[in-house]
Amino acid sequence: MRIVTVLGTRPDFIKAAPVSRHLEHIPGVEEIIVHTGQHYDAALSDRILEEVQLPRPRVFLGAGSGTQGQQTGRMLEAAEAALRDLQPDKVVVHGDTNSTLAGALAAVKLHIPVAHVEAGVRSFDRAMSEEVNRVLVDHLATWLYVTHPAAAELLRREGIPDALITCVGDVTLDAVRLFSPCARENRLRPFAVAAGAYVLATFHRAENTDDPACLRNIVAALEDVATRMPVLAPLHPRTRAALERAGLGTSADGLHYLPPQGYLDMLALERFARLIVTDSGTVQREAYFHRVPSVILRPDTEWRELIARGWARLLPPADGQALRQGIHEALDAPRPADDGGTLLGDGRAAWHLARHLADAPSTALPLAG
Ligand code: UD1
Predict the structure, then answer these.
(1) For 55, which DSSP code?
(2) DSSP designation for 351
(3) Is 63 exposed, middle or buried (0-12, 13-18, 19+ CB in 10 A)?
(4) CA of 232 to the centre of ligand 1 (A)
(5) Which of ligand 1's atoms lies nearest the C-alpha of 98?
(6) How far apart (Å, rounded) are the C-alpha atoms in residues 355 and 176?
(7) Would the pTM of this model clear 0.85, i.e. be above it?
(8) Which residues contact 304 (CB under 8 A, 6 or more apart)?
(9) Strands (E), the chain
């Protein structure tokens, strides 16, 4: 059985790695990786691919940047050609990126059934391109792998038949468990910070970077907290460009802008942080898996359970004063009760998923919702 995994961004590579490791050991299964080229910088792509030891992509689609439509359109056309050529029995896509949508759409139009990993995630905000991608891919997929029962319930409410939904847990947790032994405290040395005595910040969502007022509020809040303890902020290329456009591109005292980090250094930075401030859906979950409290730089999150358990708090950057105050409060708050990090599975999601996908009849096409 030939399975093609279509991916193209940093978080896709990390999520795909544990799944590939299991698929590799299933007799009769051959997995081929198709890289759309959505992320093309060495720091965002090559380095991460190498660290997570994903099988070398066989096909590069070279999509690069562009507007949403340009980027997705280029990937769709190129993915269709690649899938025609490779003739897979099944296609796997992860998460909610434009690469995910392009891979899924190209496959179903060729009548190749699609597995969607991390299905059933919703922000209920269609202004986010990731939300549009998730909804569409969930309704195209034959196999929907969800991280926890609430995601399955969301899909059922959208009319997706129960038979298509499988709860396996979060492959992000698998990756954290797999790679954390390589993310030891000595990785902090080059950053000159001590474990438990710094804040880690990441922000790259278009809603934050493309709104100069939000960007200014985030930077002001981080500069403020940096008077208390160092803030390390690895910058996505989009964020770097937006900060430079806004004249905010220089690190202030205590606030250190860093280049995009490799996955292992990033895991170490997350693991030993006192607090994580982020607008990333993946980083907020990783924070929870490391039992590090987080502040989410958004008005809402797809992962509300993290808030219910006290591990995360929402601070929309539109309100600069509340953001500054909220970050200080998060630093002063007592640690939430340790629930064992079990909200999103047992760290064996990739194993469950790979077995299920390998056993599923490849002729299955989506049932009408
Ligand atoms: C994408 C995903 C987002 C995910 C994020 C992880 C979509 C719609 N969004 O956002 O869900 O959280 O990846 O990083 O798919 N750029 C570079 N070098 C690169 C890649 C991008 O300089 O290697 C620049 C592009 O020129 C562009 C900007 O970064 O200006 C944004 O890149 P893009 O691929 O559009 O989406 P991300 O913001 O990375």
Answers:
(1) P
(2) H
(3) buried
(4) 20
(5) 15
(6) 20
(7) yes
(8) none
(9) 2-7, 30-35, 59-60, 90-94, 114-119, 143-146, 165-167, 199-202, 231-234, 255-258, 275-278, 294-296, 312-314
> What is the pLDDT confidence band of residue 362, given thresholds at 50, 70 and 90?
confident
* pLDDT at position 366: 57
For residue 85, count other CB atoms closer than 10 A to its CB: 10
How sure is the predictor about 369, in pLDDT bands with cuts at 50, 70 and 90?
very low
8 Å CB contact between 233 and 222 = yes
User: What Cα–Cα distance (Å) separates residue 76 from each residue in 83, 209, 250?
Assistant: 10, 26, 38
Q: What is the pLDDT of residues 225-237, one digit of tens each?
A: 999 999 999 999 9
Q: Ligand 1 centre and the CA of 238: distance in Å?
A: 7
204 annotated active-site:
yes
Q: Ligand 1 pocket by C-beta < 6 Å: which residues? A: 9-11, 38-41, 44, 65, 96-98, 129-130, 204, 236-238, 280
- pLDDT of amino acid 368: 46
CA 307 to ligand 1 center in whole angstroms: 26
